[in-house]
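Suppose a colleague, Dr. K., hands you the sequence of a protein chain of 170 amino acids and asks what its three-dimensional shape might be. Before reaching for any lab equipment, you can write down a predicted structure in token form. Begin with the sequence itself:
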Amino acid sequence: MQVAWLNDQQPLLVMFLADGAGSVSQGGEGAMLAVNEAMAYMSQKVQGGELGLNDVLATDIVLTIRQRLFAEAEAKELAVRDFACTFLGLISSPDGTLIMQIGDGGMVVDLGHGLQLPLTPMVGEYANMTHFNYRRRCRFQTGNFHQHWACAQSCSIYGWYPATGVKYAG
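The predicted structure, expressed as tokens, is then:
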């Protein structure tokens, strides 16, 4: 999570979370790369003063992550699938909140009207299946919430530690 200030001194909350697929050899590394790449991309956008909370920004973040994962897979002579991970992101300013997700994670937010799950976690055709960010036709969802008076008041990202069975909230 990172809190930054925009050029006009307005606060900006940026949160990214990725969970590596447990069925692949480099899922944890893929998750780390996804979060680091998304944060680096956002840092560039904030420094450049170009920030629109919209689907274009979400798409650019996902494409940037995918490029990084493909490059890492090529450098290590592995399949990009070996770096599969899910991804959640929240970018919130006084002008609005953009939420994005790939996969079965979920984000609960309070935008001033009580807790809500703005995007339904994505599941696959069968139990224990989900969507990952490496696929050519990667599916992702976004939600854009304009609340013109405050940033997201609170946010919890819920997930699952597959190896331990322990739930966590961050």
